Structures are given as structure tokens and as C-alpha cells.
């Protein structure tokens, strides 16, 4: 199973339209506020930090470049070629590698695992933006990439983020400028129950090793100038034993 052509085209259209440079899209916050914070929770659970790290759903590569300074091999993957164009342009020194990947496609994740071996995986805000039928195949793909020794770190919007996003979208002036393209391209965040995320991982053969709550920082502000933060949860998972 792979993602639908509609979903693939939606992301390609979004990234084609997105401005270049860091901070141009809603979730493109500074790494010191995102990946650096996440690593503090992730690294204590890494049993093999020397493994390659896959940044799954890397977008324009802001977090990928940060992670490339902390792991020996980092591969940024995305579904949209336009996203990878942004990432490569922003990384002229080639600090990371970039690769087109449909992580819900079993053959594609198996091919990447055959190339890299077991890998640690970082995934921020992808599952809740995936169509419902693709969520379990995506979790299965994470398990394939991690293999026996890798660990998976996820950050996903919590259920409580739904009302916040709806209120922003329905404001008197419409959605904020950086949220509007998400809705316009048909990739509005879906609502995934908090309890469903560990269930997807469990069915994929992964065990949740740790979890917690963190705000997902955005690059957008409300009309009164307040930075928008969305409730989110993080999980670390891996094979048992």
C-alpha cells in the first residue's frame, strides 16, 4: 500500500508554493526550539547512536541539518520532490542526504532499510497529517526502518490541538497566513486520538519506551502577536528486548 495520488499531489503543491528560507511554513520553527528539545528526550533511549538517522517527513530540511551535526549519517526523506528541492538548496554543503520516500509503501521502506541497515528515526508531525488508511502502513514503515536495533521518536499533535486549530481557522479574519496554505492544499491536520498512536506502533511490532507532552511550536502568531503553540505528545519506541 502507498499513499494516494491526491495526498501526494497535495504535498507537492504545498511545497512548490512554499517560500524558500527557514520559517516560511507553519511548523518550521528554529531547531533550538524543536529538534534540540526532542533530542533531550530521545537520546537517553538510543542503544545504538551510531546508526544512521532518518528524518522522516523532512520538508525543507531545517531539522535535518541540525540533526546532521549530531549523528554520523542523516538522511532526510519526504514524499514531495519539491520539499527535497528546498532541503537541498538550503544545504549546499551536503551535511545530510535527501531521498524521496513514501513511508507507507512497504517496498520503499524495505529498500531503504536494505541500503542503510537498522536506523534511528525522527518523525515530527507526520502521522496526524496522514490519511486514516495510511496511518498503520506508515507505522509499519517506521518499524521496518528501525529494524531490531533502531529507535523511533515521534512528535504528534494531541487531541487537544483540534479545537485550537478549528478556532484559528474560523476566526473573523480567516486562518493565519501560514495556516491558510495547509487548508488550501487539502492537507489540514487530521484528528488522531492520543490513545491511537501507541496502538499503531504496537501493531507494527514496536514497544513504547517513553512518552510525554510538549507544545508543538509554530512560526505563526495570533492577531494579538502571541506565538501559536499546539498541544502535542512525544513517544520513543523500539523493538522489545
From TrEMBL:
Record's keyword annotation contains Methyltransferase: yes
UniProt keyword Transferase present: yes
Classification via Pfam families: Methyltransf_25
Domain spans labelled Methyltransferase: 54-139
Keywords: Methyltransferase, Transferase
Alphabetical GO biological process terms: methylation
Gene Ontology terms, MF aspect: methyltransferase activity
Annotated protein name in UniProt: Class I SAM-dependent methyltransferase
Naturally occurring in which organism (per UniProt): Streptomyces triticiradicis
Amino acid at each position: 500500500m502507498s499513499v494516494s495520488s491526491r495526498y501526494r499531489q497535495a504535498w507537492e503543491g504545498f511545497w512548490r508554493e512554499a517560500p524558500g528560507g527557514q520559517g516560511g511554513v507553519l511548523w518550521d520553527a528554529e531547531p533550538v526550539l524543536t529538534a534540540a528539545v526532542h533530542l533531550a528526550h530521545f537520546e537517553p533511549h538510543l542503544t545504538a547512536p551510531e546508526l544512521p538517522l532518518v528524518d522522516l517527513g523532512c520538508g525543507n530540511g531545517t531539522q535535518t541539518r541540525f540533526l546532521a551535526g549530531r549523528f554520523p549519517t542523516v538522511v532526510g526523506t519526504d514524499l514531495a520532490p519539491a520539499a527535497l528541492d528546498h532541503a537541498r538548496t538550503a544545504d549546499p554543503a551536503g551535511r545530510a542526504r535527501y531521498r524521496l520516500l513514501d513511508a507507507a509503501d512497504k517496498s520503499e521502506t524495505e529498500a531503504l532499510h536494505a541500503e542503510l541497515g537498522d536506523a534511528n528515526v525522527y518523525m515530527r508531525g507526520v502521522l496526524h497529517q496522514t490519511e486514516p488508511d495510511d496511518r498503520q502502513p506508515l507505522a509499519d514503515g517506521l518499524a521496518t526502518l528501525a529494524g531490531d536495533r533502531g529507535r523511533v521518536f515521534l512528535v504528534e499533535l494531541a487531541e487537544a490541538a483540534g479545537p485550537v486549530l478549528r478556532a484559528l481557522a474560523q476566526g473573523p479574519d480567516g486562518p493565519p497566513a501560514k495556516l491558510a496554505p495547509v487548508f488550501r492544499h487539502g492537507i489540514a491536520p487530521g484528528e488522531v486520538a492520543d490513545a491511537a498512536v501507541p496502538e499503531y506502533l504496537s501493531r507494527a511490532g514496536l514497544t513504547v519506551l517513553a512518552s510525554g507532552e510538549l507544545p508543538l511550536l509554530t512560526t505563526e502568531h495570533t492577531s494579538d502577536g502571541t506565538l501559536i503553540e499546539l498541544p502535542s505528545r512525544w513517544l520513543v519506541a523500539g523493538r522489545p528486548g
